[in-house]
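Annex B, item 7. Sequence and structure tokens for protein A, then protein B.
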Amino acid sequence: MGFATIEILAFASARHSLGSIPGFWFHRMNHNDREHLFNATRPFAHISAHMPFHDLHLFAFNEDVRNFTIDQIKKGMDGLAFLKGEMAVVHVGALGNQLSYKEVWGQMLETFRSLGDYAAARNLKVGLETMWPESIQEYTDLMFEINHPNVGATIDTGHIRSCTDINLPPERRDSAEGRQRYNDVLMKIVDTLGKKVLHYHLDDVRSSDWREHRALGTGIVDFPRLAETLKRNQFAGLLIFELEEPDRINTLKSSATLMKQLM
């Protein structure tokens, strides 16, 4: 289809509303399977991968769970490095046991700096995806305080819906006010982080229920405004379409057409 970049799940057996999503467990693959995957991805100039997050908790109360999660992410990075990829997307994750992010702040900084070192040794970068922490202040503070050259932000244009700074009840979201607040929060995150933004997941948000991963141009995300911000900030990373639409091919085509026109 003419795409220069592909993002793959560095884990298998994931599902969403359309069914199974392709992925791979690198550490479980034999030599032939690894070579097959390597050769199949050679047409792409750039490769990114989403690290495991299902059933995992980076900052669980149980230390064994934390260590297992870190190990799974590192194995995912090994797989991405084998494919000569460049960007590992990581979820910070929600906190259980009634913890707050401030209570585990030091642990988060240590963990992501360590993952940054692991990534740097494999010529990778780590992008912490928007969704957690849920506030602009905590998310942007985390990016700056990690202060690691190989760790930055992955902005998912559909994940802003969970940001606490929007501060609107569900019944007021499907409105001009809701759309304005959504896009203002998205742009504030992007402009605050500047060069700390390393990577994008592009998807729209349905107006009626704020469901993400919709085709670009069909929802509330102000992509013309985002494109101007990308140009102003001289963004040079990867733009990934993360879509969950039944008509997969035409959705990709229309979304690509829109972004090319805007850029």
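Protein B:
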Amino acid sequence: MGPAVGPAKQVAGEPHAVDRLATLLAEDLTAVDAIIHDYMTSPVGVIPNLAAHLIDAGGKRIRPLITLASARLLGGGGDGPRKLAAAVEFIHSATLLHDDVVDLSSMRRGKKAANVVWGNSASVLVGDFLFARSFNLMVETGDIQVLDILARAASVIAEGEVMQLAAANDADTTRERYMEIVVAKTAALFAAAAKAGAVAAGRAGPEASALETYGRELGLAFQLVDDALDYGGLSATMGKNAGDDFREGKVTLPVIFARDAGDESERGFWRRAMGGERTDDDFYRAQALLKRHNAISRTLDAARTHATAANEALKLLPANAYRDALADLPTFVVERGF
């Protein structure tokens, strides 16, 4: 049984959950990194240079680790899970490159975003290249079911990004609409990463469904915490600038909580600020309103609910070191940066 998700903090000097999972899967992860670097090579120099700028920038590889752990948990062997893990990382990296162009982001993983260094056109096209390479890897596994899982996830992610773009600057975005966006743009890849690992291990039944639920709930928790961090975290923790969501007019759960709890004057502020008429001081007022209405703590409580649901799903799976390592991730995801 996985541990309950609560306010536990990492002990000083103790490796966090991702590091423990990476240690458990060290041989697999080394092989995945080799596959990634092999498949992002190209005679067109800007492609490997731009891709490496993002992929080698210190990302935690959470999604490919989930794929690997899900497969090994269920007894899956061979190179199939490794190729799928690399494909998952390529899909994730491609979406980040595209997102940074759409959002006009200047920072990613603690350094200048690729679109700032190489320009928007190159970032979009290299993102397309990484998407294509991910499909090369899926096909090489020879498993049409995992190809279907990850191809569907790629489509859903794109739909989620378009939904988010359509909802930008709409201060009246509901919690239900916001959650639809989060399910699509973030949770879908976590869910597919976990399910694909199970299917690669030959366990396409209840175990795959349980891992899909685990991944989806973990992804929801992950995004809720990211949205809270935008108003209260350190840029070193986030790898991006604090307040980016606010400046981009993204109505996230902390804003929804504060808006719905506020008076008409406060709702007027959110309509103006999220609608695009922002002053330099508005971010600080937004932080003050979130604090007044406990919006950050309420968002983290919602994230903990999803993290607990992720661990509940793991109870259906065989007890072993891989399940224990996956069970550590939800607490790490919720408590990072706070």
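Comment on protein B: Residues 1-14, 234-238 have pLDDT under 50 and may be disordered.
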